[in-house]
Amino acid sequence: MGAWHLPAFVALSLVLAACAGSMHELPLISQDDVLHASDEIAAAPELHTVRRNTGQNLALVQRASARLQNATFALCNQAGHSPCQFEVVFDPSDEVNAYASGTDRIVIYDGLIKYLATEDEVAAVIAHEMGHHIAGHIEKAQDNASAGAVVSAILYTAVIAAATGGNVDPDVFNSGLNSSAQIGASIGQLSYSKEHEREADYIAAYLLARAGYDLGRARGLWVQLTKSSGNMQTDMFDTHPSGPDRLAAWDIAVAEVTASDDLLPEMK
Predict the structure, then answer these.
(1) Is residue 38 assigned to a domain?
(2) pLDDT given for residue 117 in this prediction
(3) Which of 126, 24, 122, 138 minimizes the C-alpha distance to 75?
């Protein structure tokens, strides 16, 4: 871990965790929930591409985007997100990916769409990325990285001072300080991103219900993509929840949505 000492690393993680949080009251999952989800994913069939051409995939994205846009306004108002007008860009390249960026911009790749069997699954991807914007995750990630860099630099300075009594070569110190700040920025983003991903999924469940999509069919997205990736465990430095965690949380969120009278997520 180089200049890092374990107590300093733990302290950084604790400081960042103390600042972490979502604006929504996310569903709690148990170890039993995760184990059941793991068994289901392990038993699921392998992922295969769907027989559609690029034009058909584009049409799917456009239909889903339009339906979801009409369903977003109540959730945007609740979260204080404005102007709540999403730009969904279809990239015809073969990358298996989708992401949120900028101001309400979403990019979704043909390489991902071709693995999704239904419009409900396509809508789940788009709704998840909309959830990132509605909850302000892009801005929070930037703030988290900055905070991580600052906290890391402070801890590094304290560790070096305690270890050397301040008698350290300035070039060596500055090099270590820069490295520590970079590590802290990375940890800062990772400390929040898993909760952000869970919150985006949670918002997506409500968006899909408001848009009239089948939450059971949308659920297949988490099963199949996890089966394909082989991601069956949560790693501390993985930016997304593991598939079993995600599937378990999704099922509990769907139960909450089904019982909801106003189709609005629970706020803290």
Answers:
(1) yes
(2) 92
(3) 24
| 253: helix, strand or coil | helix
The residues pairing with 90 across neighbouring beta strands, listed in sequence order, are 108
Boundaries of domain holding 111: 6-259
What six digits make up the tokens of 20? Answer: 């972490």
- Please report whether residue 268 resides in a domain: no
Mean pLDDT of the chain: 80
pLDDT tens readout for residues 222-241: 887 777 765 544 443 345 55
**Residue 245 above 80 pLDDT?**
yes
How many domains in the chain? 1
In a domain, 266, yes or no: no
> Is the predicted pLDDT of residue 196 greater than 70, yes or no?
yes
Q: What is the DSSP string of 80-143?
A: T--S---EEEEE-S----EEEETTTEEEEEHHHHTT--SHHHHHHHHHHHHHHHHTTHHHHHHH
Contacts made by residues 224-227, CB under 8 angstroms, sequence distance 24+: 224/44, 224/47, 224/115, 225/47, 225/115, 226/41, 227/41, 227/42, 227/44, 227/45, 227/46, 227/47
Which residues touch 266 (CB under 8 Å, ≥6 apart)?
24, 25, 256
Q: Residue 267 falls within a domain, yes or no? A: no
Separation of alpha carbons 260 and 168, rounded Å: 61
| List of residues 6+ apart from 32 with CB closer than 8 A | none
What is the pLDDT at residue 33? 95
Q: Which two tokens stand for residue 112?
A: 């991902």
Q: The pTM is what?
A: 0.76
d(CA 250, CA 197): 11
